[in-house]
Amino acid sequence: MTNQADTAPDQVARLLALVPYLLARGEVRLDDAAAHFDTDAEQIERDLRLLFMTGLSPGLPGDLIEVDLDALEGDRVIRVDNADYLARPVRFSPAEATALVVALRTMVDTAPAEAREVIARTLAKLEEAAGQDGEELLRLHVTPTPLETSAVVPVLESAIAHGHQVEITYHVPSRDRQSTRVVDPRGLARVEDLLYLDAWCHTAGGDRAFRVDRILAATELDTPVADPGARARDLTGGWFTDAETTTVTLRLAPPARWVVEYYPVTGQRPGPDDTVDVDLEVASEEWVTSLLLRLAPHATLLAPDAYAESFTAAARAALSRYDDDGVDS
Amino acid sequence: MVQPRAERLMNLHILLLGAKRFIGKDAIREACYPEHARGPAGDEAFERAFERDKDALRQIGAVIEVGSADAFFDDEIGYRIPTEQTSLPEIRFESDEAAVLGLAAQVWQHATLAKATGRALAKLKGQGVEIDPSRLEVVAPAITADEPAFEPLWDAVGKRRQVSFPYQRADETAPTTRRLQPWGLARSSGRWYVVGLDVDRGAERVFRLSRIVGPVRATGRSGAYDVPPGTDVRAVARRLSPSFPSVRARVRVRQGTGIGLRRRAESVAPIAERPGWDAVVVEGTVHELSDEVLTYGPDVVVEAPESLRDDVVARLRAVVAAAGEDR
Lengths: 329, 327
Hints:
heterodimer; A: alpha+beta; SH3 type barrels; five-stranded antiparallel sheet; four-stranded antiparallel sheet; 26% strand; B: alpha+beta; Arc Repressor Mutant, subunit A; 4 domains; 12 strands; 39% helix; elongated
């Protein structure tokens, strides 16, 4: 994000924000100005040298904006004069107002309850400052997913960048167990809608791809990874490529069709009555059972027969819990 | 070199800013564009550069007014930037609010939106706002826009320009070209959608960006259409992910299971009269909770509300009944 070309409008936008700040203070240390605008002193200096060349009626001495270059080079102090007409920053453009306001709206929806009030307060002030552009602020909207607000992702990114090991608490839904393990993270990969952590798992003693939305907690450790040169594997080709898989065929009624979008389906054919038959490569029977339960009664198992028994058995067992509770049959 | 154009843009801005009268094109040319000599070639080069520069200043946030530069003849067009409309209203932020602003800078993972946020924040810093995100213990959401169609569509939304693109739905074998007047973009369930007027169908349509399988081309002029007043892409997003009223459910979860439910539970407490089971309170829609409870099979049992319990039982009965038929 930082390596974008610095265009002329970028530089002008920066200057029109910098000058009001300088004028309000009279005299500012170069390094303080750089810190305030979250940039380096060189950039501020380059911008000031441009400012030195501009002003009212170019070519007529006396009206140009005055920048004290001696003070800048000597004491690294900025003094700007004859620029009172630039005393106020330019208002937000529609694109700027939208980007900032929508960022805050996204935050307010997902922040922990104790932080919501201050975000809402800040948001209200910005919406007011955007003023008549209110309609423009409705052109962009984000409903973030849990993954996008995850506290885990920044930890993983930092560990990958530093070549550090991470300790993760991982939830395995097919067995409905959680475990804590130390892994050497190599990269994050997005496959369809899901984000995976590719890592060497010390507990399992092998390569593993962890679904990030199932990592309940992550802590970056001080210890470096064992093999810093290891490249992330390409996970886009397939999912369980390093596990033994079985092909299952499901018949999906319309309410269960989202499966086609959500999981890597290897084959797909139309079935009777608006259904669709799909083939999936799966690593565990438990996973298929829980998927079928989640889809109940809109999915039926066509193959393999061996899996059908455990699914119906699970459904019967679940139903019997309610019979025990005295629900009418 | 960017220097000369930046210098010219600054001079143009300063020339027009706060001008009491509209400043004629000729005067502008003389003051800021001396490099374009008079004559057909120079005239054309000046017009092009001036158009581009006005556009750049508008994108920085300047409001450029157009009017007659001559009191007696209205054929000379002039320009000015009124100070009041163009200046940022004075906003004061408490220090905790300034921390929120710092976090907002971390939300967009998309270069153009991140840059726009950065510029907006720089203007606030120009007013003296001290931004320090470290004061707030909150993780900012990280929103990406990896689809190549995002950038041209966002640009078209801002300019109100019609676009066309090849689009292929999951149930289609080949893409078709769609023509759209885009109104806005919404992200839901980790996917971007564009909403607008489908020109060929004459009706509002929503398109998923990941199904745009080729380049998005903008056609025609800017400001070619008006977005219907009151259009709110939030409403579109809500339609994409219908949200049903949320209920608070009490479920019985066998110990060591139901991790997903426990993760977001309001409370978890052992049940004295049923050793090995916990009472877990979770919130969600009936539909969501029903799916989730079923996933755990016999390890999770709904106690309340009745609507959720009935839904789960009905779905289980349907499965058992269907299995019975097969025998």
